[in-house]
Amino acid sequence: MAIQDLKKLLSGTKKASENALSKTLPEDLPQLPRLPDDALIIVPVRATVLFPQVVMPLVIGRKLSVEALQQAIRLEKPIGLLMQRDNNDIDPKPDDLYTTGTAAEILRYIAIPDGTHHVACQGTQRFRVKTFIPDYPFLAAHVELYEEPEVSSRDIDARVITVKEKAIEVLNLTRQSAIEVVNAIQSMTNPSLLADLIASYLIEKAEEKQEILALFDIQLRFDKILELLNYRIEVLKLSNQINEQTQESMGQKQREFMLREQMKAIQKELGEGEENSAEIEEISKAITAANMPEEAEKQARKELSRLQHMSDASGEYSMVRTYLDWLTELPWSKASPGVIDIAKARDILNADHYGLDKIKQRILEFLAVRKLNPNGKSPILCFTGPPGVGKTSLGRSIARASGREFVRTSLGGVHDEAEIRGHRRTYIGALPGNIIQSIRKAGTNNPVFMLDEMDKLGSGIQGDPSSALLEVLDPEQNSTFRDNYLGVAFDLSHVMFIGTANVLDNIPIPLRDRMEVIELTGYTLDEKAQIARRYLVGRQLETNGLTAEQCSISDAAIETIIQDYTREAGCRNLEREIGTVFRRVAMRIAEGLVLNENVEAEHIPEMLGPKKFDSEVAMRTSVPGVATGLAWTPVGGDILFIEATKVPGSGKLILTGQLGDVMKESAQAALSLVKSHATTLNLNPDIFEKNDIHVHVPAGAIPKDGPSAGVAMFTALYSALSDRIVQSDIAMTGEISLRGLVLPVGGIKEKVIAAARAGIKTVMLPARNQRDFQEIPEAVRNQLNFVWLEKVDDALTGVEDENQSGNAGSDS
Question: For 1-15, 51-65, 129-143, 315-329, which range has the lowest pLDDT when averaged over its residues?
Fold first, then answer.
């Protein structure tokens, strides 16, 4: 209710204009029979109740209602207003109307060009319909008018006072009170007029107003008004209380929210909000299309709701937007549909790699199991071996053979746990860890995932990355891997993880236990030659812009490069040297000196310079006190020379060559063993009292350690003390005990391959290492003679008199 309207109506003034009525009536109104004196023309109204003495504007649009209104004006009769029971009824019949209404005088009538008719009415009396008049072009009825009696009693006076108080309280609660309105209500003495005015303007629902209009008894009318006013007062008090509590609890965030909403409304009016709405809709469609698990989708919808209420100029907006991009772009349910063909996979592996039969067999076994059980858990493989033996390229071949995507991440130098698990979303620039980033890059949830250089992981104050990998590489746990940035679980159980390492000792035991270790050892001369011919030559020709017609290289030239210019377990340096040869040829062709060239063995020194490696075996074993041992290194096997000599002294043992504690102890054990067997070995016991024994291992700048040089040290000491020469084509390895037993050692395959590469003919190994014999490549087994040592005395068969050194190569 407007205060101005209430002021105007409470004044009781009546404004009628006959000129305004006459000017708006049409001239061709039909002449209808005059209505009886007790009849009224009825005009149905929707959700509107007019009380006596109240002025109200009405808008009439229905044709019959307009004709009834115009006829009443022509006849200068009042109209009867009856409210419809159903507001949706377009053409109400008598039964569709309430039976109690208000007779009203027409104060003003205006017809608007748009087809609507506006009329101002003032109620005069209540009436009750007796019967409707039939055969009339519009609704008309015989009515019984109700005259308000003059009543005065203590009950009525008390109710008048109470109603005034409640009315003023409602006005105060609705903050619409004005001093003149309050004074007008308090000064009003007519109970009927007071009740009708308050019911008209302070009662909200039309049905409640109709109920009050139908109460002819003034006391019942006041009771009903009091009931409704009391109810509205309670509702207004509760609403104000809630509003006050809300205002008090509204902090900075609520105020910001309201300001953002106002800003959005302003942007919408200016036509600037459509872009943001389109972006929100696009993200919502992306969430649906991502087919996330329930937990992830719930989180994404929650963040989208937050984003919708943010300003795109705030820093948090970009953080939430980036987070939703990560969630929607991850391959939650997208997998590589590759069909596994075992025969095709075998051909791919054989085409990409030469040799490695055991590794290929294991890969084919995995593919066969995956084909028979597609829903099984993928194993965690770990390829370990020296650099350049093909660990990383083998992972690519596995991906190609299984029809999967291939991703690789290097763990070398990683010392922050967040590199694996991701950073928490507490600052701008946070990102998921390498695992989730690589999965997103792969675009599928089942790629071949290579974790390269696992033995190079570090740790620091930021945590231990190897501990974070425990969950990633555990098939029982990685189905619910939780990245700190995402905050929801991602299933890694379909990913085939492959780790690579040079040394297993640097990988923590719990992490190593989760992986199936497959060792890749160094290549033999023949294997390197085959790899060079099949893969390296073609790759380097393409890299250097040459064709097979322009440049070729003979097998003898490749073998020369392998023997004289590279000494490694893998093939990286071999490929570099071949690339150097081809660059020399490419330069000559580019200068126009030749059109094509075939590289032979005799051309290699001209292109690569003097030999980088010579066979030092014969030179170093041409004097007593030198034995050839075998060593394992992270880059493969190698030969190790043990030199011993005696000098006048007091029996001290001198050790040089940067030896570790274990290797020093092996030298002391070897010397004690020689002393204890002096009689058996035909050595003069006085030699130990009058001489110092000096044991040296060349390449003194390189740290050396381990027990496997015990046999070689014993042999070198015996050779030096007995002035006998160790055969130049014999190499040995094994740990010794003080009882003279030869104990098993590791790295047999790498050591034997290194011996064959160095030109050794006979290898002495611990007898208990015969279990490793099958691991040695067949070509190497056929190339060497093997002597299995039970006791250290068995190694002395390779020691000969100095005057027999000319036949050293033939006696094994």
Answer: 1-15
Catalytic residue status for 751 = yes
719 catalytic? Reply is: no
Q: Which stretch of DSSP H or E encloses residue 381?
A: strand 381-384
Query: If you search the block for the tokens 């068969």, which residue do you land on?
Result: 797
Q: What is the mean pLDDT of residues 408-437?
A: 85
For the chain, what is the mean pLDDT? 83
What's the pTM? 0.57
Residue 408's closest CA among 457, 383, 441?
Answer: 441
Query: Out of 336, 378, 666, 708, which one is annotated catalytic?
Result: 708
Q: Which helix (H) or strand (E) holds 540?
A: helix 537-543
Which stretch of DSSP H or E encloses residue 119? strand 117-132
**DSSP letter string, 241-285:** HHHHHHHHH--HHHHHHHHHHHHHHHHHHHT-SHHHHHHHHHHHH
H/E element, 142: strand 140-146
**Catalytic, out of 209, 749, 751, 761:** 751
- DSSP E strands in 398-540: the ranges are 406-410, 448-452, 481-482, 489-490, 496-501, 516-519
Pair 560, 606: CB distance under 8 Å:
no
Beta bridge partners of 82: 44
Nearest partner of 42 among 135, 132, 145, judged by Cα: 132
603-636: pLDDT as tens digits: 888 888 888 876 555 455 567 888 999 988 766 7
Which amino acid, one-letter code, is at 312?
A: D
Pairwise CA distance, residues 550 & 635, whole Å:
35
pLDDT category, 26, cuts 50, 70, 90? low
Give the integer Cα–Cα distance in Å for 328 and 628: 63
